[in-house]
Amino acid sequence: MRSVRIYDLQKQEHLKQLVSGAKWISSITVHNSGDHVVVGSYDRRLVWFDLDFGSKPYKTLQYHDRAVRSATFHPGKFPLLACASDDATVSILHAKVFSDLMQSPMIVPVKRLRDHAVHQGLGVLSCAWHPTQPWLFTAGADHRVYLWS
User: Fold this and answer.
1) Could you report the per-residue pLDDT of 32-51, keeping only the tens digit for each?
2) Spatial CB neighbours of 54, under 8 Å, sequence gap ≥ 6
3) Is 145 exposed, middle or buried (0-12, 13-18, 19+ CB in 10 A)?
4) Residues in contact with 39: Cβ distance below 8 Å, sequence separation at least 6, in sequence order
5) How confident is the model at residue 1 (pLDDT cuts 50, 70, 90)?
6) Alpha-carbon Rg of the chain, whole angstroms?
7) Cα(94)–Cα(82) distance, integer angstroms
8) Backbone dihedral angles phi then psi of residue 52, each to the nearest 5 degrees
9) Cα–Cα distance list, 146 to 11, 106, 119, 125 (Å)
10) How far is it, in rounded angstroms, from Cα 123 to Cα 24?
């Protein structure tokens, strides 16, 4: 099984190992709070970890038919998560994390972006959020870059 290892770089020690259950990890993103990690995998899944509750996944999500290439939380104030895939689509999820530890994160699919095309078996290769606006940039194997606003 593939996993994510967490280290304290100042103390130079291993803190925790997150067991994803995914065969091939393709990307990782950390929520602004620092307490949540989402891992994308080539076996079509997103694996969500709540670091306060151990090393097993909080939730495993599958929104794509092919490999997940990139997953990223919005770096600013917007509760958004984008997930780019080789099926040439990008899933946008409302991913609200609450400060109350007893309340689970709210994960709701919002939109599926579909303008990219599959080229030689590859779809959307990367996605990145604008730092202050709810705008998403995507780059695909079809040699196109889109700004979604």
Assistant:
1) 999 999 999 999 999 999 99
2) none
3) exposed
4) 4, 18, 20, 22, 25, 27, 28, 46, 47, 49, 71
5) low
6) 15
7) 9
8) -75, -15
9) 42, 27, 16, 12
10) 17
Tell me how far apart the alpha carbons of residues 83 and 43 are, in angstroms, rounded to a whole number: 13
The answer for residues whose C-beta is within 8 angstroms of residue 31's C-beta and 6 or more apart is 37, 38, 73, 95, 97
**3 CB neighbour count, 10 Å cutoff:** 15
DSSP, collapsed to helix, strand or coil, labels residue 140 as strand
Q: Residue for token digits 């995507």?
A: 138
Quick check: helix, strand or coil at residue 32? coil
The pair of structure tokens assigned to 65 is 């038919």
- Alpha-carbon gap, residue 123 to 87, rounded angstroms: 5
